[in-house]
Design a protein that fits this description.
- Helix 1 packs parallel to helix 3 (142-155).
- It contains 3 helices and 10 strands.
- The chain is of the alpha+beta class.
- A 7-stranded antiparallel sheet has the order 3-4-5-9-8-7-6, with helices on both faces. Strands 1-2-10 form a 3-stranded antiparallel sheet.
Length: 163
């Protein structure tokens, strides 16, 4: 089960979108321009409850949540900030099962209590802002979310104006 998640995450950057474009919509954060494709069966479910500004989307069955947000970068060293964020996940009891970091993007995922998450952050606007996405879902649904994880990772971008 977790093997599927790890393979999907590791593969996200080289796979083309596996679902037809009509099955997805594009969300663009109006203030920070962070953007991602959202599956058609996810509906807006309030603002993102994270730093920055964004939106939360909930699956029609209520079991999965996508959170998208943008915000200012947190200082001069992106990798240090990503290490802090990943460490905070571990402090909250998540077992990190996947982690990949570069100077301008980071992706990580983990498990806790029968749930799985995948997160990605990219540095945009010449390092002044970040675009972020996080998907939380039940571990029993991992095979059904492989394509979603791939598409979220591929589609995360800066579509709006820089702040």
């Amino acid at each position: 089960m977790l093997r599927s998640l790890v393979l999907a995450i590791a593969f996200f950057s080289s796979v083309s979108g596996s679902l037809p474009a009509a099955d997805w919509t594009r969300y663009v954060n109006p203030r920070f321009g962070a953007a991602v494709d959202v599956p058609a069966d996810f509906a807006a479910d309030g603002p993102a409850q994270v730093a920055g500004e964004g939106k939360r989307f909930r699956a029609s069955n209520g079991r999965a949540v996508i959170t998208v947000w943008g915000g200012p970068s947190q200082g001069a060293d992106f990798l240090t900030e990503m290490g802090r964020r990943i460490g905070a996940e571990e402090d909250e009891g998540w077992a990190i099962t996947y982690r990949s970091e570069t100077p301008d993007w980071a992706a990580w995922g983990g498990t806790r209590g029968g749930h799985v998450f995948y997160a990605k952050t990219i540095l945009v606007c010449n390092g002044r802002q970040t675009a972020n996405v996080r998907l939380d879902y039940p571990a029993m649904d991992v095979p059904g979310f492989d394509a979603v994880v791939n598409r979220l990772g591929q589609s995360l971008a800066q579509d709006g104006a820089c702040f």
